[in-house]
Amino acid sequence: MFKRYWWMLLAMAPVGILVGFLLASVATYVMPKEYESFATIEIRPHRSTTSSGSPIMTPVYIGTELNKITSRNSLMNVSEKLDLANKWDMDQETVLRILKTIVKTENIRGTDLIAITVRYNTREDARDITAEVARAYKEYRSDLESKTLDLGILELKKTVREQEDKVEEMRNSVMNRSLLHSSNTPDSEKEYLDTKGDFETDQALLEQMKLRLVAAEIERDIEPDYIVIHDDPVIADSPVSPNVTLNLVLGAVGGLLISPFLALPLMWWLQRRNPAQG
Questions:
Q1: Cβ atoms within 10 A of the Cβ of 5, count?
Q2: Structural domains in the chain?
């Protein structure tokens, strides 16, 4: 009975699109905004952790470091440094739960780089949290490497002292064998040469240990950067959520789909008004 008013279906299509567009605009406006900030860091493992003396990034190593970045202790340091409990008016446990959900880390495929990403409802907090997460991890790694180097140096010093005692003992043995060697007996000459050879070997080993100790002390004093921040976090210009373009497109498409249902009441009303023309 609506054959005469079929054109209403076409007429209501742009109206439906407009209505969907307006509804999507309002919904997008009232939806909570999320801003994203990110930092890119490079992790340089200490060469003592590798067999070849050069940094090697393995999936296990990267996975371990990713977990360290978002560990409870690390996030606790971030919260305390930024005083988030007072700033957000929350207890510390709630703050930590929020940080655990908004701080994301991932290895950038095909590289030795790690991306730290934070999404939050204020752009300043997103930037500050990202920067503090990167800083806290860099500080943690620096402290850890310093302690590792210090322990290594202490062990080297202990080994050097033990080797010095051994060399001194061998030196005395050489002097004693030298006195016996003067008797010119075959046995005394052989013992002298053997003892002298052992002494020279131990002395050469001592010199190598001392060189290693000097190198370790120089490395500790230089304090190389084991964490390099390549991209410092910045304040986002616009929110990443909600997706304005996608929402408007979906609203327009939805409006187009419901436009026939908007046309039907008008078609029915026109039919009632002009029943003779139906």
A1: 20
A2: 34-243 (3.30.1890)
